[in-house]
Design goal:
Layout lengths: L2 H11 L12 H30 L6 H25 L1
Length: 87
Amino acid sequence: MTVVDAISRFHQAWPPACGLLPGDSVEVQAQRDFYAQRRDEALERLFQAIEVAVANPGQDWSAELERVSYESELEAHRVMRAVMAVR
C-alpha cells in the first residue's frame, strides 16, 4: 500500500463531518462532535504511520499502512453506526 492509497482509503471511510444545522438537537450536536473527534484521532494515527514510513525508507512499511488503514475503516464503521443510532 502506498501513502496515496492510505490517504484515499481514509477519506473514503471518513467523509468530512457536516456542520450544525438549524434545529439540531443536543444529541445530534454531541454525535457530530463525537464523529469529528474520532475522525481527527484516526487521521492522527494515519499521519503517525506515514511519518514512520517516510523516516524509514529502506523498510517495507506498506503492511503497517495497510493495518492502520484497515483499523481506521473498522473504526469509521463503528462510529457511523453509533452516530446513526441517535437519529
